Amino acid sequence: MLVHAVLSRLDAVARLILREPDRAEDAVQDALVRAWRDLPTLRDPDRFDAWLHRLLVRSCMDEARRSRRHRSSVTWSPAHEPVAVDTSGSILDRDQLDRGFRRLSLDHRTVVVLHHYLDLPLDEVAEALGIPVGTVASRLHYAMRALRAALDADARSTTRKAAQ
């Protein structure tokens, strides 16, 4: 049961970062192979989760570099589906958010996923990515600014269409 939960979470993170289910599965598999191979190099067993996330992010980055195409076919896993019945307003909000998220660069998407989806503090995001905390804060700032701009642009276009 624990292994299934860990695999589901890794798969969800990879899907959010890569936005392609097939590539996400490849990245998860690659990360798990790296983890198995490099397990003897893990110095602090208490940091296993951060170490595994770092391996997953690296695998996602490698996979993205291989593909160089960013499609947006996202399939939400059952853990992400809402419990209540969706209303049309929440569907529109989710679609707007997805469009904005899709516009982010891979680096920005990765920081947002690790910080907001995995709820990692900035220092752990920095550790997982192997970059300074200041860089993480900067990427998160610009990613959130880009998301807000995309949502505002969508809202303005929706308002113009409604006025016509």
CA(first)-CA(last) distance? 54 Å
Kindly report the name of the CATH homologous superfamily of the largest domain: Winged helix-like DNA-binding domain superfamily/Winged helix DNA-binding domain
Provide mean pLDDT, rounded.
82
Q: Indicate the low-confidence ranges by residue numbers.
A: 70-74
Q: Rg, please?
A: 17 Å
Overview of this protein structure:
By secondary structure, the protein is mostly helical. The protein folds into 2 domains: 1-74; 87-164, Winged helix-like DNA-binding domain superfamily/Winged helix DNA-binding domain (Arc Repressor Mutant, subunit A, Orthogonal Bundle), CATH 1.10.10.10. 74% of the residues lie in helices and 0% in strands. It is built from 7 helices and no strands. The chain has helices at residues 2-18, 21-38, 48-67, 88-103, 106-117, 122-129, 133-163. α1 runs antiparallel to α5 (106-117). The longest helix is centred in the C-terminal third of the chain and has 31 residues, at 133-163. The protein is elongated and about 65 Å long. The termini are far apart. Mean pLDDT is 82; it is low at 70-74.
